[in-house]
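Researcher: Hi, I'm a grad student and pretty new to this. My advisor asked me to get structures for two proteins we've been looking at. I'm not sure of the right format, so I'll just paste the first sequence and hope you can take it from there.
Model: That works fine. Here's the first sequence with its structure tokens right after it:
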Amino acid sequence: MTVTRTRADRRRYAVAAVIGHLVVIAGAALLREPTLWFAVGLMIPGLCLCVGTAAVLRRSVGRPGSAAKDLDERELLLRNRAHYAAFQGICVLMLVDLAYGLYAAGQPDPGSLLSSMTAALFVLGTSLPALWLAWKLPDDDPEDFDEEVAPG
């Protein structure tokens, strides 16, 4: 049995991914000359955590990330709900990026500040569908994964 078949396990991975994303965003906010190496040192492990856990989550949520021709009606509905929720989340992230851009405009080297924050928010936005599905999907049915084949 894999470690991500239960909702609780997937939620733990989702929380770890969000923590990784928040660390990357904090590093992007600190990416300026006096704190440059601290920010880079913060971003590298945060990026490893968020990308690693997001990859595990994408694999664990399974088929709702597949093409439409491979999905049944229930899986299509789940995928569409996840993408719609992620779209709303990305809209909020872009508002945050806009507000940060207004702040960065008054700072020295605003282009690098804004580009690093936009990249950090983009990485978070790409993992939102998997995070939503990991949080919302129910536990897998253990009978689907039994090793034994029923006689018949």
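Researcher: Oh nice, that was easy. Here's the second one.
Model: And its structure:
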Amino acid sequence: MTDLPELIAQTASALVGTVAGGAIALYVARWQTLRTAAIQAETTTAQENAAVRLAHSLRVRERETAAARALLERLEGMYQ
């Protein structure tokens, strides 16, 4: 029975190591999850902003094309 205290110490040490390792794994998993969510939110925001800018650019281009077409029609009318 003289080995019982040593066995208890080793068991306690292993238990503490297991609990500490589990806590670290949970912390890392949570950090990765939160970081992934933040990156996804940033990506979504960037995509939405890009879509808004693209739509605006397309509207501007359509107006410029229509204005150029109207100008060419006026010039054609003046030459005739």
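Researcher: Is there anything I should tell my advisor about the second?
Model: You could mention this: The two ends are 117 Å apart (CA to CA).
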